[in-house]
Structure formats: C-alpha cells, structure tokens
Specification:
Largest sheet: 7 strands, mixed
Number of strands: 11
Strand content: over 45%
Structural class: mainly beta
Radius of gyration: 13 Å
Distance between the termini: 40 Å
Oligomer: single chain
Order of helices and strands: EEEEEEEEEEE
C-alpha cells in the first residue's frame, strides 16, 4: 500500500535551517508529482511547495518563496524540503502529499522558536 513517511522536523531558532524528507513506498514514485503542505495550530492546511515527477518545482506558497526549496531523488523514492531563514510563523506540522489519490503522510512537527 502507499506509504509516505516524513522525517527531519524539530526545534530550530529563527533564522535557522531544516531539511525535511519524505520516504515513499508502495507505488512507482517517479510517475507522480509530490507536494509539501503544512498546518499551523488553529489554521487550515496550506500548500508549501509542489514538484513534478521529473523534478521541476512548479509551485511555492507565497510565504515561503525564496526561503524554501523542494527537490526529489527518484532513485531513492524521496522528496525533500529544504527550509532556510526560518521564522516563528513557519511553525506547523508539515505533511508530504501525493497529488493523485490523494495520500498524506503522518506529518512532522517543525517549531521555530528562540
């Protein structure tokens, strides 16, 4: 069955960086676009970034443009989210998402705080 397992979250100070990973299994990873979403406390889930099956980043949320980078390694069945210049408002649970299904991972917590 389809599985998406996120990792790499944690506590980081403002201005710091984190790299999230999403390991995919149960399907032919290289055939699907993938996305990262996030959900902050008390808010709805919002798109962070999307990437095509060929590795072209096609969309970033306005609040993360220029700071976050989505990428993928089809040989490793993994999609990544490099997060730089983190701000307290980036605090959220980050979810991996397969654009056809849909399928969600369990999420990984990112907390940006001093």
């Amino acid at each position: 069955q389809v599985q998406l397992v996120e990792s790499g979250g944690g506590l980081v100070q403002p201005g710091g960086s984190l790299r999230l990973s999403c390991a995919a299994s149960g399907f032919t990873f290289s055939r699907y676009s993938m996305s990262w979403y996030r959900q902050a406390p008390g808010k709805g889930r919002e798109l962070v970034a999307s990437i095509t099956n060929a590795g072209i980043a096609i969309n970033y949320g306005d609040s993360v443009k220029g700071r976050f980078t989505i990428s993928r390694d089809n040989a490793k069945n993994t999609v990544y989210l490099q997060m730089d210049s983190l701000k307290p408002e980036d605090t959220a649970v980050y979810y991996c998402y397969r654009n056809t299904g849909p399928y969600w991972g369990q999420g990984t917590q990112v907390t940006v705080s001093s």
